Amino acid sequence: MSKQALGRGLGALIPGMAEEAVAEGRMLKEIEIASISPNPYQPRVDFNDDALLELSLSITEKGVLQPILVTAKDNGYELVAGERRVRAAEMAGYKQIPAIIMEGLTKEASIELALIENLQRENLDPIEEAKAYKQLVEECNLTQEQIAQRVGKNRSVVANSLRLLTLPPEIQKIISSAKITPSHARTLLNLADSGAQLQLAEKMAAEKMTVRSAEKLVLKRRGARRSPELSASAEDLQSELQRHLASKVRIHRNQKGRGRIEIHFYSDPELERLAGIILDTGAGMK
User: Fold this and answer.
1) 83 is catalytic
2) What are the two backbone dihedrals, phi and then psi, of residue 281, each rounded to the nearest 5 degrees?
């Protein structure tokens, strides 16, 4: 006999949830897992088998205590948030799962809700988190300040997370595998050469360095292999600009002392934020 999503009624396990959902114009019901299609904007790339098994055992014992979010689509549903719960419930042998059905969502609203729900509830790795923030910037035209408000974090947390995406893909994989932390990775942003960044990232991971040791390693490399275009003071200024603007910055100089400053951005809202900081118009605080 197939298991049901919950051994008891939804109201018994989630007091007030049904009433709250009805009050907000949402429907709370148990739906067939087979009728759910994946969320195309799911920020999670990898699902840890051990973590899924642990969640599956918890569901077997206690049921699914937190409903997933879906929207009605064609003859079934499209998942908005809760893919780990769906997978774990399937592993536990469940055919149905409690779901809140969101009505009348636009594509943009669905994307925003899916990403924010995952950022708030799911244990994303640092690169998945950064990519989710980037999607919110690009797909939903949200500023870093708006994202921070929605997920309950400081803007600097969002900005520092996005900076990880300026590192080479090989280093991003090292971060995702938890061989180095985001704090280790951010020390590498002070190096302009991607090859040097990767070499030091691998060294940090292999030697299990502390963040302080990683900082010293990067400073040593900068002193040994400083770009002939930049003086030590210019490289320090470049690093300070990156911290202040929370974006990738590169200073280029020629032998005559002339040059240019490159500031990287990901979207029009990000450009407006940077312009606001530079012009001190207040737009940078949006």
Assistant:
1) yes
2) -95, -10
Task: Answer whether 0.85 is exceeded by the pTM.
Answer: no
pLDDT at 263 over 70: yes
Q: Collapsing DSSP states into helix, strand and coil, what is residue 235? A: helix
**Angle (nearest 5°) at CA 138 between 136 and 142:** 50
Give the whole-angstrom CA distance, residue 133 versus residue 150.
11
Cα separations (Å) of 104 from 56, 110, 170? Answer: 32, 9, 40
Q: Which residues does 104 contact at the CB level (< 8 Å), separation at least 6?
A: none
Q: Of 24, 30, 78, 83, which residue is the catalytic one?
A: 83
Task: Identify the architecture of domain 10-105 in CATH.
Answer: Alpha-Beta Complex (3.90)
**Distance (Å, whole) CA 10 – CA 28:** 9
d(CA 200, CA 188): 8
Q: How does DSSP classify residue 35?
A: G
Domain boundaries, the chain: 10-105, 173-225
What's the rounded Cα separation, in Å, for the pair 265 and 271? 6
Strand pairing class (27-32; 36-37): unpaired
The per-residue pLDDT for range 153-175, each reduced to its tens digit, is 888 889 889 999 999 999 999 99
